[in-house]
Specification:
The complex is a heterodimer of chains A (144) and B (412). Chain A is built from six helices and three strands. With 144 residues, chain A is an alpha+beta fold. Chain A has a single domain, classed as Sufe protein. Chain: A (Alpha-Beta Complex), CATH 3.90.1010.10. In chain A, a hairpin with a 4-residue loop joins strand 1 and strand 2. The longest helix of chain A is centred in the C-terminal third of the chain and has 16 residues. The radius of gyration of chain A is 14 Å and the shape is globular. In chain B, the strands form five sheets. Chain B has a seven-stranded mixed beta sheet with strand order 4-10-9-8-7-5-6, with helices on both faces. A four-stranded antiparallel beta sheet of chain B has the order 13-14-17-16, covered by helices on one side. In chain B, helix 1 packs antiparallel against helix 9, helix 3 runs parallel beside helix 4 and helix 10 packs parallel to helix 13. Chain B contains 13 helices and 17 strands. Chain B is an alpha/beta fold and 412 residues long. In chain B, strand 7, helix 6 and strand 8 form a beta-alpha-beta unit. At the A-B interface, loops of A face helix 11 of B. Bound molecules: pyridoxal-5'-phosphate (PLP). The site of pyridoxal-5'-phosphate (PLP) has 14 residues of chain B, from helix 3. Pyridoxal-5'-phosphate binds next to helix 3 of chain B.
Chain lengths: 144, 412
């Protein structure tokens, strides 16, 4: 049976209640919106990219505990990364939640916090909440 | 404080309710999305497939005659249930959505033109908004909103103002609001609309299961219904349309089963309602839909309605006493639907916590985004009751809400 405390771990509740880097960014070089048609939640992700480096990441918009926590943790995980590193973190995070046909996908390493979100994969109708900000990040980076 | 309601008289007729979810007995509070079906409905549909299965209308053999009789009977039963003047005023569709689309396309294309106005309530379901946008686009008509008050009721003065322009051809609104439970004053609105020479379409998806519907007394021109919201099967619905309107309308979809005579270059259509039912119809669906209405009448609908509204009323009161919880909508008259938000928990999180307690509620915008905007929320958690609801369901809902507070905190 599913255990709710695997989903709502302390750290997730903490990020959900007091999200980090939740602010608009006037100096953003890239930004994009993510929309979850299931609940109507909307998140905007802002990036400041300098050369190959993601100098700053932030987000705005409201949503459930999972989407807010995931967005908040994402900003912390990606800031300071090169674009390649950020992309591969996206891949690994995605692979952690969404079963793929590429099982050898690099595992998330060095981001203990992000691993706290792994419990979401047992709640299929909540996976979109956890990936919302990440997809917005990807779109921002790709200028879509 | 809480009146104890004795065991529900009909719950054991619903096999799907008898199960455990997350280690708790299921408390099914999502009947506004779809109701469960009683054994009587399941058996009526199975009996058709087991004994009478055949295509309707075109057969000479015995099974086809029986299937046709059952299908025609189903139409008569539905007509009687909503007091249509003749069975031909009932067109079978696949649901409420298709019924609205049928009117938008078949009636709208003929009757709307540049400069005309379609008045649509802000409270409405996307299925009673989007079809009008599409036909407005196609005909050059425009859409004007009928506003909703802070209580979640139709703002009749705004309807009057829209009607006063003299441009309104059609007014579309729902009888009962799936998102917040409001029961709208249909006969009052329909009368007002007809004095302005406009046509009324009412989305009755949520009404049939909870209140008496008499299309003649209500004075409506079109009334859309869905079988699955009133203990019947999915994939079947019906449109009531006044006969002269229906007869004047061109077909919506075309093909076999709806024709009188076809040559390669021209066709004479069958009379109504067949004109609007091309192809092989959903015969077991129609049979199940009619069986559901019969079941509701035979079970003493008024007594069941009293029970479900008492439970919903109790749920509303008890939820409201939880710190940080706010019920959305406070209409004078409501169906057994309670929508709420909690200060520290998003509706999706409420839904997940409730599920872990075996409580099935719905979280989201309930296909009513304009209404959510009007009420100042993005989404809500919604508990909706039905004839089989019990005191235990309410207790489980309250336990679930308390668990949400435990996890996410009450008001800080
Ligand atoms: C008020 C209202 N109108 C229309 C619909 C659509 O009904 P259906 O999905 O059966 O076409 C629903 C159901 O979601 C509803 O609640």
């Amino acid at each position: 049976m599913l255990n709710l405390t695997d989903l709502y771990q302390e750290i997730i509740l903490d990020h959900g209640k007091a999200p980090r880097n939740k602010r608009t960014m006037e100096t953003a070089t890239h930004w994009a919106e993510g929309y979850n048609p299931l609940c109507g939640d909307q998140i905007k992700v802002y990036l400041q990219v300098e050369g190959e480096t993601v100098k700053d990441v932030s987000f705005s918009g409201n949503g459930c505990a999972i989407s807010q926590a995931s967005a908040s943790m994402m900003t912390e995980a990606l800031v300071g990364k090169t674009i390649d590193e950020a992309n591969s973190t996206f891949q690994s995070f995605h692979a952690m939640l969404v079963p793929s046909d590429k099982p050898d996908q690099a595992k998330l390493q060095g981001y203990d916090e992000l691993q706290a979100l792994e419990g979401v994969k047992n709640y299929p109708n909540r996976i979109k909440c956890a990936t919302l900000a990440w997809h917005a990040f990807k779109s921002a980076l790709e200028g879509k | 404080m809480v009146a104890t309601i004795l065991s529900n008289p009909i719950k054991d007729q619903f096999p799907a309710l008898d199960q455990m979810v997350s280690g708790h007995p299921l408390a099914y509070l999502d009947s506004a999305a779809t109701t469960q079906r009683p054994v009587a409905v399941l058996e009526a549909m199975e009996a058709f497939y087991r004994h009478d299965n055949s295509n309707v209308h075109r057969g000479i053999h015995s099974l086809s005659v029986r299937a046709t009789d059952h299908y025609d009977d189903a139409r008569r039963q539905i007509a009687r249930f909503v007091n249509a003047s003749v069975p031909e005023e009932i067109v079978f569709t696949k649901g409420c959505t298709e019924a609205v689309n049928l009117v938008a396309q078949a009636w709208g294309r003929q009757n709307l033109t540049q400069g005309d106005v379609i008045a649509v309530s802000e409270m409405d379901h996307h299925s009673n908004i989007v079809p009008w946008q599409v036909i407005a686009e196609a005909t050059g008509a425009s859409i004007e909103p009928i506003s909703v008050t802070q209580k979640g009721e139709l703002d009749i003065s705004s309807l009057r103002a829209v009607l006063a322009t003299g441009k309104v051809k059609l007014v579309a609104f729902k009888h009962v609001c799936n998102a917040i439970g409001t029961v709208n004053p249909v006969s009052e609105v329909a009368e007002l609309v007809s004095t302005h020479g406009a046509t009324t379409l009412v989305d009755g998806a949520q009404a049939l299961a909870h209140i008496d519907v008499d299309v003649q007394a209500l004075g409506v021109d079109f009334y859309a219904m869905a079988g699955h919201k009133v203990y019947g099967p999915m994939g079947i619905g019906a449109l009531f349309a006044r006969k002269e309107l229906l007869e004047a309308m061109a077909p919506y979809q075309v093909g076999g089963g709806m024709i009188q005579k076809v040559t390669l270059t021209s066709t004479t259509y069958a009379p109504v309602p067949e004109k609007f039912e091309p192809g092989t119809p959903n015969v077991p669906g129609a049979i199940g839909f009619a069986a559901a209405l019969d079941w509701l009448s035979d079970s003493g609908k008024q007594r069941l309605w009293n029970l479900e509204s008492e439970l919903a009323h109790q749920a509303r009161e008890r939820l409201q006493s939880i710190n940080g919880l706010r019920v959305i909508g406070s209409a004078r008259e409501t169906a057994p639907i309670v929508s709420f938000v909690m200060e520290d928990a998003h509706p999706h999180d409420i839904g997940t916590v409730m599920d872990s307690e075996g409580v099935a509620i719905r979280a989201g915008h309930h296909c009513c985004q304009p209404l959510m905007d009007r009420m100042g929320v993005g989404s809500t958690a919604r508990a909706s009751f039905a004839a089989y609801s019990t005191q235990e369901d309410v207790d489980a809902l309250i336990r679930g809400a308390e668990r949400v507070v435990e996890i996410f905190g009450g008001k800080c």
